RNA sequence: GGCCCCAUCGUCUAAUGGUUAGGACAUCAGGUUUUCAUCCUGGUAACAGGGGUUCAAUUCCCCUUGGGGUCACCA
């Protein structure tokens, strides 16, 4: 049997990280089984249309390396299909018209809440006479079509959780077709998954309780029932369902902050699944090879930003300088950093190993291309004094001024030259290197002075030392 | 509240009817180093509780507790 999975988000305008993982797992499984990965847009709620959302979704999915094999199928373009199926249900008495107003439903719900009885539709419209119904229909009274949930219970086997049974009396007579003629999720999802021959429904845990409605529909239509795999939720640090209120949830936001798609994919893949338990870093290809629905965890996973940061740093460090330059271009642009290519290349080379995101590269570029305001006290090493710092900086000025340009081709050569000065004078490293580094960076923490000299070049280095010296009176 | 689901270090997780319960992130302490980062070494840290079953339970069963999800003409 040809495996078909689908990712079926509603078009909210961005891709939620939970959605990313759902899409990823669906993609991994389809690829591993040599099957088909479908994208379907669930836009049956006309009150929540977001312009451009479909395009944004496809763009993000594609840049994340998860392009669908088929689709996008747009539910709002398939209304006839849903109506047709609704009619079938009506004809067989599996569904019924409901003319109840929203006000009545609201009152009903409040009553049920007050009396602590089950929150279900009371089937007031189920026993309407044929004449009544025809008349209301003829008068265009607003109405919906509801599923007539049969008695009994519904059992299904989830690929991740095993057998689950829910009493049908717990299931509401779900609205299938809304007043506006659009289907609800429950109708559309069943009709479409069948129509598209989806074999494995991989989706979030929050859908588990509505599976009975779907199974009931599958049975009423006589459709074969697909496999279900409900993924554990991705959680906030407080263990609630990952939400906007507690940080970024949009994949686009992470991308914009300078997280790499590889890191995001890798990180999210490990939320609820552990391919081999002997390492943390996996390529997409490896994930495809190792993916196993039965090995997915049952419990929710907290989204740990610290680990994402670490992982992004790991991926960043595997990139070549040239790759990092390319990757950081959009960040330089949005941060309005104009910088010389060769200078930026050196910044990348040096900052590479202390990077967490690409945005930081743009930040560093900005800092290093600005003239700095000095904090004179920073120039003095804790074990030395002003006179000492001044003496060394003056001496170093001439050391650097006399360096051949060829020395600047290699960080190690710069280091050798400076170290030679230290050796010949039998100085302490700190006496020389601290003021030098501080003069160049005016930062308490920074790359070492050799790297800074190499990065800034002779002129800028001398200029910065001069500036520092002018403060040491 | 009804129903459903879940339960190993702070977090992500591995393993097993008999193990010193392993790894990673975070954290702490050392080493390297002028500082930071990297890197190296080491440490702290978990089987929610109670009953069973068993020669033996973290592992299997039950209960409790805790957490989560869901109860829309939203998905």
Automatic annotation (TrEMBL):
Binds 1 zinc ion per subunit. It catalyses: tRNA(Glu) + L-glutamate + ATP = L-glutamyl-tRNA(Glu) + AMP + diphosphate. Its EC number is 6.1.1.17. It is found in: Cytoplasm. A motif ('HIGH' region) lies at residues 9-19. SUPFAM superfamilies: An anticodon-binding domain of class I aminoacyl-tRNA synthetases, Nucleotidylyl transferase. Residues 3-310 form the Glutamyl/glutaminyl-tRNA synthetase class Ib catalytic domain. ATP binds at residue 244. Residues 323-469 form the Aminoacyl-tRNA synthetase class I anticodon-binding domain. One of its GO terms (molecular function) is glutamate-tRNA ligase activity. Its cofactor is Zn(2+). GO terms for cellular component: cytoplasm. A motif ('KMSKS' region) lies at residues 241-245. Monomer. Belongs to the class-I aminoacyl-tRNA synthetase family. Glutamate--tRNA ligase type 1 subfamily. This is Glutamate--tRNA ligase. The gene is gltX.
């Amino acid at each position: 049997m040809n495996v078909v999975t689908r990712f079926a988000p509603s078009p909210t305008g961005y891709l939620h990280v939970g959605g990313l993982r759902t899409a990823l797992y669906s993609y991994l499984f389809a690829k591993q089984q040599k099957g088909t990965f479908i994208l379907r847009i669930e836009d049956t709620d006309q009150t929540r249309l977001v312009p451009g959302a479909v395009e944004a979704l496809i763009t993000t999915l594609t840049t994340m390396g998860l392009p669908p094999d088929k689709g996008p199928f747009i539910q709002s373009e398939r209304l006839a299909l849903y109506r047709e199926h609704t009619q079938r249900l009506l004809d067989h008495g599996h569904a019924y018209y409901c003319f109840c107003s929203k006000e009545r439903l609201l009152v009903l719900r409040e009553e049920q809440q007050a009396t602590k009885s089950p929150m279900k539709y009371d089937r007031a419209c189920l026993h309407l006479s044929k004449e009544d119904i025809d008349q209301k229909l003829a008068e265009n009274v607003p109405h919906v079509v509801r599923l007539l949930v049969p008695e009994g219970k519904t059992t299904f086997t989830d690929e991740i959780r095993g057998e689950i049974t829910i009493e049908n009396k717990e299931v509401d007579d779900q609205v299938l077709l809304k007043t506006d003629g659009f289907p609800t999720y429950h109708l559309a999802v069943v009709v479409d998954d069948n129509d598209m021959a989806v074999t494995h429904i991989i989706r979030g845990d929050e859908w588990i309780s509505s599976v009975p409605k779907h199974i009931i529909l599958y049975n009423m239509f006589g459709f074969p029932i697909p496999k279900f795999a409900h993924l554990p939720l991705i959680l906030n640090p407080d263990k609630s369902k990952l939400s906007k209120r507690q940080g970024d949830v949009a994949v686009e936001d992470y991308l914009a902050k300078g997280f790499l798609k590889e890191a995001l994919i890798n990180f999210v893949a490990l939320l609820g699944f552990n391919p081999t338990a002997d390492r943390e870093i996996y390529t997409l290809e490896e994930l495809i090879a190792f993916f196993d629905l039965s090995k997915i965890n049952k419990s929710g996973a907290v989204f740990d930003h610290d680990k994402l940061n670490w992982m992004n740093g790991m991926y960043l460090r595997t990139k070549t300088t040239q790759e990092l330059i390319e990757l950081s271009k959009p960040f330089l642009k949005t941060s309005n950093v104009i910088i010389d290519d060769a200078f930026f290349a050196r910044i990348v080379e040096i900052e590479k190993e202390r990077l967490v995101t690409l945005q930081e590269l743009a930040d560093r570029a900005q800092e290093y291309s600005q003239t700095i305001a000095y904090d004179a006290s920073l120039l003095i090493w804790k074990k030395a004094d002003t006179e000492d710092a001044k003496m060394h900086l003056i001496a170093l000025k001439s050391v650097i001024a006399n360096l051949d340009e060829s020395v600047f081709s290699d960080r190690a050569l710069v280091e050798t030259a400076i170290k030679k000065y230290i050796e010949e004078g039998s100085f302490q490293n700190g006496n020389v290197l601290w003021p030098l580094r501080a003069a160049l960076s005016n930062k308490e923490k920074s790359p070492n002075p050799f790297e800074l000299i190499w990065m800034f070049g002779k002129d800028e280095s001398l200029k910065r030392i001069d500036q520092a010296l002018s403060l040491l009176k």
